[in-house]
Design goal:
The protein is an all-alpha fold and 88 residues long. The protein has five helices and no strands.
């Protein structure tokens, strides 16, 4: 079976969703899904309209918001739990 760029981006998205709290290394993500860094950026943006880093930040923000609402955490605590280094 031939993997298309879209299939590889789907794998990258799944990886980011599973590990959104971890620091992101684009070169490692590209290698994991079998793409060059530039190809990953190009195809990721074409599929999601954002970069992998922007996508990870969006996931973190959504999860932090969820934690603030459901667990009544303050901004700093929620941010820390989702992998952000600073409350801002």
């Amino acid at each position: 079976m031939i993997e298309t760029p879209s299939n590889k981006i789907s794998k990258a998205i799944a990886y980011l969703r599973e590990r959104f709290m971890e620091p992101l290394r684009i070169d490692e993500l590209a290698k994991r899904v079998g793409m060059s860094t530039s190809s990953l950026h190009h195809h990721f943006r074409a599929v999601t309209a954002m970069t992998p880093v922007q996508y990870q930040k969006r996931i973190r923000l959504h999860e932090a918001r969820r934690l603030m609402v459901t667990e009544r955490l303050d901004v700093g605590s929620a941010g820390y739990r989702v992998g952000c280094q600073s409350p801002s």
